[in-house]
Design a protein that fits this description.
heterodimer, A: mainly alpha, 1 helix, B: mainly alpha, about 75% helix, about 0% strand
């Protein structure tokens, strides 16, 4: 039988990894969009 | 006899994204971003809104990176002070290597993004301010001298200059005066805090002025620094670099600052003192900077 403490920690580990992956993905997309608009602004003078 | 069951090895949890956010000192960042934004607005020329937004974002990220590196280096003394013991590193919610990687990565990213989006002069100023805060203030001065925040205050004074430089590509008298204003504001602001947090700093072995030179000397120094600070606050208006909105605001707010500083300067704390004049000066000093920089920006917007 799995120790309830270890099970809870494993679930928390997975939850945090998932949450960090989501935040990283959102930030990456935001950066790509930002770079697109920076390029447009720089080209536009 | 029952065999002892070994306790399960705890799993080292990865730090939550909120811990990374806390590492950037968001509350300090708000003042940095605001003064940087006002420096950008005060410039006589304009840039595309997306580039202005990116410049402010870079100032915020740079400040966050400096905050993260500061917390990485100071985790030992942060653990000793009540005010900072709950931070991610001393509280054990994050390992030191993650904090270091995060701080260094964010520093490079903010400087390069600033260079690409605006100009490399602004990027160099941003890099200089991060290095100054981390190497000169955090590593060199903070644990060695009571003048730590006097010289280290220069790091926090950079944002309006960076904001101005991001737009114009150079530096002029107005951003230099705004730099000087924050530089001279830093000692009374932090010494007011240090007066009512003296025991915390003493416990952590940080040589803040009240710990090293005593309360009386600190109170005198607060008054002495307030004089050039007030002159610097009024100078942009006196030199015709700003209009009446800023001038009136600066005179009024500086007079209030001076009254509070004198009140702190002339008193002596007693046993079980609530230190309310010191707390009031500390709180007002933050409001003071927000309002003065807001007035600089408003003045420029009204004039144009």
């Amino acid at each position: 039988m799995i120790d309830p403490d270890v099970k809870m920690q494993s679930e928390e580990f997975a939850r945090r990894r998932k949450s960090r992956a989501k935040v990283t993905a959102v930030l990456l997309i935001a950066m790509v969009v930002l770079f697109y608009f920076i390029t447009l602004a720089r080209i536009g003078g | 006899m029952a065999k002892a069951v070994p306790a399960p090895t705890p799993i080292l949890l990865p730090a939550d994204w909120r811990d990374f956010l806390a590492l950037t000192k968001p509350r300090v960042m708000s003042l940095v971003v605001f003064t940087g934004f006002c420096g950008l607005l005060a410039a006589p020329v304009t840039i595309a809104p997306v580039l202005a937004f990116t410049a402010i974002l870079c100032i915020a990220l740079g400040a966050g990176a400096a905050g993260a590196l500061n917390q990485w280096y100071e985790s030992d003394i942060d653990a000793l002070m009540q005010r900072t013991a709950g931070r991610p590193l001393p509280a054990g919610r994050m390992d030191r290597q993650s904090a270091l990687h995060f701080g260094v990565g964010l520093s490079f990213f903010s400087v390069i993004l600033m260079g690409v989006a605006t100009n490399w002069f602004a990027a160099a100023l941003l890099a200089g301010s991060i290095l100054f805060y981390v190497l000169i203030y955090t590593v060199w001065l903070k644990r060695r001298t009571a003048q730590n925040i006097v010289i280290g205050g220069a790091a926090g004074a950079f944002p309006p200059v960076i904001g101005w430089a991001a737009v114009t590509g150079d530096v002029a008298m107005l951003p230099i005066l705004l730099f000087s204003l924050i530089f001279l504001w830093t000692p009374p602001h932090f010494w007011a805090l240090a007066l009512f947090m003296k025991s915390d700093y003493a416990k952590a072995g940080v040589p803040m002025l009240p710990v090293v030179a005593g309360e009386k000397n600190t109170r005198l120094q607060i008054m002495l620094y307030t004089v050039p600070m007030v002159l610097c606050a009024v100078a942009p208006w006196a030199m015709n670099l700003t209009g009446a909105i800023y001038g009136g605001t600066a005179v009024l707010m500086s007079a209030l600052f001076a009254v509070l500083a004198i009140r702190v300067g002339l008193r002596e704390s007693v046993a079980k003192d609530g230190m309310s004049p010191e707390k009031m000066l500390f709180g007002f000093s933050i409001l003071y900077l927000f309002i003065l920089f807001g007035a600089v920006a408003l003045d420029r917007l009204v004039l144009t």
